[in-house]
């Protein structure tokens, strides 16, 4: 069964998932989208190719949408950081064809990001997500998308000092430093969030921010950790 969604622009996005195949296209009229979906489903049932060139896989932004849709289908939720990164990459590189994400384009992208203030770690994460999207499209949907350009761009940007690892931490904060930090936060009359309790809870459980924000009494017991 096709999924048909009305976009803010008034157009209709039609997505077809059938027998492990995926196709997506946008139409001005819903009726045209329904007819296209029936035709695509028929081709899949007959074992015929569905012409990926005519689907969302023709742009990098389309591959990002496909990746997110695949994860949602199997119940995997994007973390806040990854979701924000993919949103940025879609806005910045989404209109490009996968084949256009070559070494030269990605080196240019890296230099521009550095000028905008992105650090070596941030740029490394960007390149990692670009490779993840292209690899996913190739492995799951058979969309040819070479990742060689990403690897070469990473080498070049690393030698330029624009890609790198974060500095290794060589110590932990002392109890006195933690107490001082919490005191400053709690003495702020404009602070309404119980930051002190959140900090101590985070230290005690080693949970991440999104995990802490999802924690409820219903999912908390003395016998097991929060989910």
Give your account of this protein's structure.
The chain folds into three domains: 3-54, no CATH class; 60-159; 175-219, no CATH class. The chain has 227 residues and is mostly helical. A hairpin with a 2-residue loop joins strand 2 (12-18) and strand 3. Strands 1-2-3 form a three-stranded antiparallel beta sheet, with helices on one face. It is globular. It has helices spanning 30-45, 60-73, 80-93, 103-115, 120-141, 148-159, 175-186, 195-205, 209-214, and strands at 3-6, 12-18, 21-27. The mean pLDDT is 84. The two termini are 33 Å apart.
Task: Give keywords.
single chain, 227 residues, mainly alpha, 9 helices, globular
Outline the biggest β-sheet: 3 strands, antiparallel
Percentage of helical residues? 40-55%
Spatial separation of the terminal alpha carbons: 33 Å
Q: What value does the average pLDDT take?
A: 84
**Structural domain count:** 3
Give the assembly state of these chains.
single chain
Shape: globular
The H-and-E topology, N to C, reads as EEEHHHHHHHHH
State the secondary-structure class: mainly alpha
Low-pLDDT segments: none
Tally of extended strands? Answer: 3
Give the radius of gyration: 23 Å
Order of strands side by side in the largest beta sheet?
A: 1-2-3
Number of helices: 9
Binned strand content: 5-15%
């Amino acid at each position: 069964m096709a999924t048909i969604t009305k976009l803010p622009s008034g157009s209709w996005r039609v997505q077809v998932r059938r027998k492990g195949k995926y196709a997506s296209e946008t139409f001005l009229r819903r009726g045209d989208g329904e007819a296209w979906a029936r035709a695509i489903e028929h081709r899949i049932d007959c074992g015929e190719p569905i012409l990926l060139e005519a689907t969302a896989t023709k742009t990098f932004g389309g591959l990002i949408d496909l990746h997110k849709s695949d994860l949602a289908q199997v119940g995997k939720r994007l973390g806040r950081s990854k979701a924000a990164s993919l949103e940025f990459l879609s806005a910045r590189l989404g209109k490009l064809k996968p084949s256009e994400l070559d070494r030269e384009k990605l080196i240019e992208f890296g230099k521009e990001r550095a000028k905008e203030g992105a650090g070596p770690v941030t740029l490394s994460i960007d390149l990692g997500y670009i490779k993840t999207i292209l690899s996913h499209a190739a492995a799951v949907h058979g969309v040819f998308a070479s990742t060689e350009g990403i690897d070469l761009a990473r080498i070049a940007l690393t030698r330029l000092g624009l890609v790198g690892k974060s500095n290794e931490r060589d110590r932990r904060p002392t109890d006195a430093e933690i107490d001082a930090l919490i005191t400053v936060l709690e003495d702020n009359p404009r602070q309404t969030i119980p930051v002190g309790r959140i900090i101590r809870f985070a230290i005690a459980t080693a949970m991440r921010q999104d995990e802490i924000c999802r924690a409820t009494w219903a999912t908390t017991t003395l016998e097991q950790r929060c989910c």
